[in-house]
Amino acid sequence: MDYENVRPRDAATLLILDRAAGGEPQVLMGRRHTRHKFMPGKFVFPGGRVDPADSRVPVTGDYEAPVKSKLMEQMKHRKGEARARAFAVAAIRETYEEAGVFIGNKDDAQWKPNAEFAPFASRGISLDLKPFRFIARAITPPRRPRRFDTRFLAVWADAICDRLPEGTGPTGELEELCWLSLEEAKSLELPAITLTIIEELQKRLIDDPELDPATPVPFYYWQRKGFVRKEV
Questions:
Q1: What CATH architecture does domain 9-231 belong to?
Q2: DSSP per residue over 30-63, as a string?
Q3: How many C-beta neighbours within 10 Å does residue 146 have?
Q4: Boundaries of every domain in the chain
Q5: pTM, to two decimals
């Protein structure tokens, strides 16, 4: 079914990678609640749309220069460094809200947050974007009920500084949270783009196991009758 064409909204997704077990890294995923109208029952990484306030949240460390440069390339809406930082801030916020996982530095930071980041400030957690790596970007094709311009980011699991004891996030959006190898994750009920991102990451890790910030990043977007893949 074709829908009225809508402008894609900026969104950010976070892949938390854990290589403690050796071999292929594991990634944190969860199943979207079946009551969701968008991708119900699908396994996804934590993430969601970028809110305007995300551009104003203070951070103690910025991206590595190549990561920032790639994130700022071909920005569609609000432009500038603050908007680029908002991608990681949104991913951090959504990861807490959906998975109960805090990404940052527990350094007794004193800062005045907005309501969404009050749990971070109360624990003395500051936000540091330096560990973030850019994995991929994808824009939902036209005439879909919801469209997103999504940046897929990654951090290693040592960026986790705290967790909620409940083992999930306060919104309850993700269920069955689990750590899986990338190969195991491919067997789940996944959105097509999520499977594509996992396969892209597997290929990258062969030659770039440390996720060098300078490595080119795939960008998927719709052109005429199909997806185009370019590198940024």
A1: Alpha-Beta Complex (3.90)
A2: EEEPTT-SSSTT-EE-SEEEPPGGGGGS--SBPP
A3: 14
A4: 9-231
A5: 0.93
